[in-house]
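Forgive a beginner's question, but would it be possible to get any protein sequence you like and the tokens describing how it folds?
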Amino acid sequence: MAAPDPTDARPEGAAPTTGAHIPPASTMPSTGPDLGAAAETSPETSPEPVLPEPVLPEPVLPEAVRSRIVVLAAGALPEVPVDELPAPLRKVAKFAPNRRARYGAAPIAAQLTNDPLFRQRVAARAMDEAGELGEAVASGVTPGAADPVEVAALAYLMRPVGWRDLVAAAGAAVRAEADSAAVAALINDAEARANRAEHDRTVARVEVDKLRDELARVREELGQLREESRLLARSLREAQTQQRRANELLATERGRAARAAADHDAELRRLRAKLADAELSAGSARQSAKEARAVDDARLWLLLETIGQAAQGLRRELALDPADKLPADFVADSFTDRPAAATSTRARDTDDPARLDDLLALPRAHLIVDGYNVTKRGFGEVPLEQQRKRLITGLGGIAAQTGDEVTVVFDGAERMHGLPPAPRGVRVLFSRKGETADELIRRLVRAEPSGRAIVVVSSDREVADGVRRHGAYPMGADSLLRRLARS
């Protein structure tokens, strides 16, 4: 048991305090004269003067003891009324339980050192929680099996007689445990190093065996390499002999090649001279052909000039005025009603759209289109009005590109009102009531003069056969649709 602390002396048999450090009676301030003491004091004897006991500084706490004291104090903060809490700890008391001891350690330790009343409250709660251990520490008895850190923390808070010795003993125990742990760590490290050394020796022995085997294998390979070196030296000497023979043969072949090259150069000079003669003959032939072509061109020009003058004389003799209308215009004038109806698609003809381009490239060509036959084949899913508008717009582009005459014919059963104006160069016709677009197309073809290029676009077999007999070129609807898609 530790020696009593002179600063914590109390009468023998007195009840233990709950952690507050009570100063001795001699150090308590006096409020007046002690009458009893004066009566018992004899005149012969005078009382000895009592000197005040010195105030010892706070002991240096081990880290483990200090941490435990802070944890006990942090756990007691919520149970202390807010108005009785020290001002620096009121904010710490609002922290979460797991954050008080971590972030409020400094202010808690300062208040425990400077505020005995706060320390006494914390000691009372710690004593209640410790139970028998707290009572034993308060009475100055330390159980042998108790944790020295817990004992030192309780002793610091309750401060019984000899509490400084308990704190010092806890520090010594903590340091002893740390030293024991360090010694154990050193022992474990030494054992680990011994194990590693033994393992390294085993590995070294294995490596030595491997190196011996490798040395034996290398020696064997060295013997094989020496044998191969002797064979390669023999092969090299044979190759050098063959190379000398090849060099001699090469010198011979070079001489033959030089003679062949000289012969080749001579033959080349002869052929070049022959080629120069041939080029001279070809130039003379080209000149003769050019003169003959000039004569033919002069004759052709004279013939065309004669035909042109004859045509002009015939035009003057017939006194023909320029035509204000085309043959198709006369057929169109007879159609004043332009109704609309639908007709079914008949036989189809698949022609190459390139042929349509060739026909439209002829001078003064006339393109006649079977309207609904084309629209219902190409875009029959839209209404008739949209079909007509789409086809007429596309034909306007063809008329503008080629400059040809374009006529589109639709079947009609009633008069059309509010039709959009046709593009320039496009004539739009509707068949009369009781007449089909096929008959109107044949009338347009018959009205044209013989020899004019007339192109009729329709997949109807009867229309194609009818216009072919009158000298027109029938084309399938697909050729025009592809031509429109390309524009």
